[in-house]
Amino acid sequence: MSAPTEPSPNAEDFVLAEVAARYLKCGERWLRDGCNHRGFPHHRMGNRLVFSREDLSEIAAMARRPARPSGERRTPAPTVAA
User: Fold this and answer.
1) In the prediction, which pLDDT does 16 show?
2) Is the CB of residue 49 less than 8 Å from the CB of residue 42?
3) Which domain holds residue 48?
4) DSSP three-state, residue 5
5) Is residue 43 situated within a structural domain?
6) Is the dihedral of CA 25, 27, 30, 31 positive or negative?
7) Looking at the DSSP assignment, which residues form a beta bridge with residue 81?
8) CATH of the domain at 41
9) 30-72: per-residue pLDDT in tens?
10) Cβ neighbours of 26 (radius 10 Å)
């Protein structure tokens, strides 16, 4: 008996870049640039850029920034005297 396998993905399991950008609350251009230049996970179906739920979770994790400690403040930019 063979081991159970995951079901193969259907077209309904993917979302277009426009929908993915709304879900991630980012710009579509930023998302496309990330796929083309920063290694964001994605798929291509024909000439369309599409994302699975797993892809979106990985992109969110890649874009996450660590929080600053609550007492830490940004240092202001030095002022230039005229």
Assistant:
1) 94
2) yes
3) 12-63
4) coil
5) yes
6) positive
7) none
8) 1.10.10
9) 999 999 998 999 999 999 999 999 999 999 998 888 877 776 6
10) 15
The residue type at 39: G
Residue 78 structure tokens: 């030095």
Q: Which residues, 6+ apart, have CB-to-CB distance to 57 below 8 Å?
A: none
- In contact, 31 and 24? CB cutoff 8 Å: yes
pTM over the 0.85 mark:
no
Going by C-alpha positions, the residue among 28, 9, 10, 11 that lies closest to residue 19 is 28
Q: Which phi and psi (to 5°) does residue 10 adopt?
A: -105, 165
Q: Is 17 within the bounds of a domain?
A: yes
Encoded tokens for 36: 């083309």
In a domain, 5, yes or no: no
Q: List, for residues 5-36, the tens digit of each pLDDT value.
A: 665 667 678 999 999 999 999 999 999 999 99
Q: Count of domains in the chain?
A: 1
